[in-house]
Protein 1
Amino acid sequence: MSWFLRGIRSGIRTEPLSPDAPVLAGVTPGFPRETRFESVADARDNETRCPTGAIRADGEVARVKRDRCIHCMRCATPDGSAKMEWTVDHEWAHGGEGSGSLPAAFRRSLHVRVIDAGDCGACLNEIGHLDDPFYNAHRFGIFVTPTPRQADVLLIVGPVTQQMQAALKVAYEAMPGPRRVVAVGACAVDGGLFGPSVMCGSGAADVVPVDVFVPGCPPPPLAILHALRAVCGQEPLER
Ligand code: SF4
Ligand code: SF4
């Protein structure tokens, strides 16, 4: 009972999802954004600091490829040199080669099959939070289903290890159409830190057609929710 009263007193409520809503600390790690430095050396310094090749120096400007970023923060907290500017948004999803949003009939009823294709556990953990009262995906008509035969969306996490490639194809083929595929996390987007290697390729798109990519390592629940709402046409994919 005490946890219930504490919850009421603390005023915790479901995240409103408005783009103008204040972003609470810890809700999103954010991303570095394109930054112009005073010298070419500062831009190059950040390029060499990045362990994944997400930053590319172009003269005095350091550009960022979000799909490669793993939020290691090395470009946000450097020792004694210029740091990258940072953004704390959460609308990170972008389109692949797919066919856009699902028809309007899916706007209030979207069923999602989650496939763990070798993830480290963190992406799966973020997806698990979608059903929390704080994120409450149900209010948007978004539900997780245990079988691909009832799924409209395949949500893939992990780099798709060789052992999971056949299973992923079977799950995709079992889905009724129209269907969409969402790759969640740097690993599923392009292999992340693990691919390409002897264990996996360059992400989910090597195995099945991917409609939407959600970068981040891991992407927070708000970023995943944004992708799912875009898939069913509740909001635009890219603003
Ligand atoms: S946070 Fe880390 S991975 Fe991301 S751009 Fe900065 S240095 Fe690279
Ligand atoms: S993207 Fe990052 S958090 Fe997600 S499975 Fe890969 S390593 Fe883990």
Protein 2
Amino acid sequence: MVTPFLPDDEKIPAIREALPSTAAGIYLNTGTAGPLPRETAHAMAEAEAWDLRTGRADLNFYKDSVERKAEARASIAAVLGTDPSHMALTHATTDGMNVATWAVDWRAGDVAVTTNLEHPGGLGPLWAVRERYGVELKIADIGMGADPANVLATFDRAIVPGTRLVSLSHVTWATGACLPIREIAELAHSRGALVAIDGAQAVGAIPVAVEELGADFYAVPGQKWLLGPEGMGAVYCADSVLDRPRLAFAGYSSFESMDLAAEAKLWPDARRFEGVGFHGPSVLGFARSVAWLSMFVGWQWIHDRIARMAGETAAMLADAPGVEVLTPRENMAGLVTFRIAGWKSTSALRELSQRTLCIARTIPPLDAIRISVGFFNTDGELRRFRDGVALVAETTPETIPHRAHIEVLRGGVD
Ligand SMILES: Cc1ncc(COP(=O)(O)O)c(C=O)c1O
């Protein structure tokens, strides 16, 4: 068991032991999916085994599932600093962004505003309402560096009369820039628009006090920086969006009661957005991962460590000749995106994976490599990764030496 009170030299090995896949390579892709805690995997396996033995049909199963969902909402609400009544469980960030985008009663000619650095998880629903209703989609070009003053000026121009929704990421998936959500939300609200935030690369990596941000919806994934299972997430819904039904889809779980004539009482809180059922062991796993991070690792420590190590990694990479860091260092979270001169990102990442055993990804629209710096990474891993990048950057695909270097770059134990 890890405890928040251990000194780092004991705590980090204990954390890595509790996250077995950190031994699979230099784990630098939490932005896609984080390492699952052993404890979460065990809890899910036990739940599966229980379901197998006892069936899933008696009343106790149902009561348990209601409790598990309440526990999951409460754990993510605590991380975001809000009340569980504001949280609806979802199956992914994308699910939450759909809940938010379809909450507007769109009419042809309405305007939705977003940025040029959005993930399809947020862009997809905007595309759908554009095609379905003839909504005008304005894409604010916030520039690669996403300088907060420029970003605000860009939104000021983009949020024109008729704007019903402003939808954007807290931290962009492509460059890792952290956007000034509170100020954008104020601007959008002053012009009568709702605000939907994609928090996929923020929650778990940086502190998120969701009520202070002022968004109407804030979508969260389970599987990334919260180290939960896939197929789970949550969406924060402010009081401002509980005034009308605003449901894109509904079902048994959306209602406190319903009769055969469809006379129904909607849940007064965010549960109304949970129209579709969930895989019980995954609900349990989501809550367990969040609780493990909260109780046995500690949020302040996690956020401080990610901020320090991601900042240092960006600086180390920027110092390597031939490396261009695209992530703005003054407003970043846990992602670092960079290019290596003379290399296509896919070829460079192939070399890096083979030479350093890193697990990372490319960002195809930018032809860049993205790494996610986790609290479980070690300084030694990040230096080894930097050495690998420096080696690739010193060479070209034609001149890079044959892979005899792999042993050198793997180095010893940290
Ligand atoms: C900013 C952002 N939004 C949305 C997504 C999609 O997440 P999910 O699979 O939870 O829908 C991702 C990553 O996959 C992302 O980085």
